[in-house]
Amino acid sequence: MFTRRDFLTVAAATAILTGTRDGLGRRAAAQSLGQDELLAFEPLGQVTLLHLTDIHAQLMPIYFREPSVNLGVGESAGLPPHVTGTDFLKRYDIAGESAAAYALTDQDFVALARQYGRVGGIDRLATLVKAIRAERPGNTLLLDGGDTWQGSYTSLATQGGDMVKAMNALGVDAMTAHWEFTYGEDRVRELIEEVAFPFLAGNVVDTTWEEAVFDSTAFFERGGVRIAVIGQAFPYTPIANPRYKVPNWSFGIREEEVAASVEAARAAGAELVVLLSHNGFDVDRKMAGRVPGIDVLLTGHTHDALPRVETVGRTLLVASGSHGKFLSRLDLDVRDGRVADYRYRLIPVLSDAIAPDPEMAALVEEIRAPHADTLSRVLGTTDSLLYRRGNFNGTFDDLICQAMLAERDAEIALSPGFRWGATLLPGQQISLEDVYNMTAITYPETYRTEMTGEFLKTVLEDVADNLFNPDPYYQQGGDMVRVGGLAYRIDVRRPIGERISDMTLLADGSPIDPGRSYVVAGWASVNEGTEGPPIWQVVSDYIARQGTVAVPPNQSIEVVV
Amino acid sequence: MRETSTMQQSALSGITRRRFVVTVAAGSAAAAALAMLPIDPVAAQEGPKTLDEAIKAAIGDRQPADGAGVISLDVPQIAENGNTVPLSVAVDSPMTAEDYVRTVHLFADGNPRPGVIAFNFTPRSGRAEAATRMRLARTQNVVALAELSDGRVLMTQAEVKVTIGGCGG
Distance (Å, rounded) from C-alpha A386 to C-alpha A461? Predict the structure, then answer.
């Protein structure tokens, strides 16, 4: 028997042998895995929930490599989403080299990326959404978990305006937020006026009176079922991002308020209660066990993509990935105010297999046209895979750190552990758009300062505790701060103050001296008044000077689990 | 309209208003029921320097019992601004003449002076609830002691992180 999997393998091998990088292999994958197969779903019950989250303003198809390291601690250790690579394939019974393996893991990433092509694209998402709505008119609710307005050149240039247009056109029914807030209070209020659907964030109050700033809940009727959608913004926005952007708003997990919103929704006749959350998966799992009455918890923030629903008691937890790479479809049979049955599919948005929606494609073209020269400016070429996602330094982060060390003449570089940013394959040109996809934030200044060895350790310990605190309610959901010019050892299961050891200056192999000052360059400081050139400038200059870059996987961080 | 009670500093506990290192939260629903005394900024310099000393000054040699489930202490897991951390506390009590919460003492064990505030109640307070804001010098535990009318003392605590920030998401 010549199975499809065998065929794809053969096709990939042929592509490599013949050097047709984007030729035969990709065509084969697209032919064997079409739009209809991606949409195949036997409908169930009265309600179809569609969920997407953490698009990070990616209007166009991109590559996105899932993490190879995503450690869980405490009660989350070893549980999804803290499963990667071959363990992931085994847990979910996924064949290696399959489309699912490509979409969900880092395994054979470069070969499979050449075979299956790019992922996402708002015009492909529009095709899928329209098809499902046509199949389930009156039953479908499309919810956006936030981190939608930030992460690209065009989103920065339009201060989120491009994404509001796109999401209005996609027909989103409600959203919540996180990076949206980094455009500042005034711009958020301005954009909400343009948003054609509810912007929900029940856990944001004003700092003076602790009164709600946004609506917490919106009600919908689908398939005869009264549905309440409660929005939960990222609880640590003013800590993980600059407080000065939202000086009058206070966030927090505010579990009691979530519980009160659930009770109020039930009292108002809701038969199905959905929490549209940007808490992060581990926080959501804890919350599902503590707040009764949530039927469906649509998770976000931590960018996890899980092919099956996780359950806590009667609550269904959905994790829909990031960057427009996936669309979640959850069909629900609701009876007597509870979910009697459900069916779920995490649909990988394989761009080559899906016909772009013409209207959305035209809107994307309209948004990008004024910026075409900037977006397409080629800076250089990469000889190696450039990616960010993972608990520790990714290769694109290492490139950013190299750029800061060189361009800012520093001994040590610090780069934030963001989880967003598109991947580049070996051989790809690096455009200015690609650099913005890794750096497009509203506080991009690249500082140059001195820090003592002791303070550097405090920084690493502090960020490590935000990631590896065994209590999820203390986790902020980013990855570990990236370092350049510095090696260290981390024992993730130790308490704060004891995780980091063996800090070494790579330039001369000397141990970091707590009392000595080091010249440090970094970006994305949350402190107001930070000065320096924007990070995209620093990185672009460096790549242009290098011409061709090659960044091997980082060997300077020893992880103890 | 809830009956308004007047907050006074506890003479019994030995905590005076000079221990206040807080700003008044006029905003929260719970605090709206309170009429707070003014703050003397110099006063924060005084008082016991360790948690044990501060607790002893508040309740003498009495041994607090576990108050988890009776005292609900609402503080953020991670402070957005260590200089003004919101705090609210409520004690489950019938608040009758026979059985009520006399005083709730709050401490921050990592501050130079751990004493934060003491709220006094009477049966006519109706509910043993209060809210305020405090300054936290660094990551530490906030400790709440509830002195009941029968002389028993309950205790609970919660950690508040004060972090450098950045890097999220």
Answer: 26
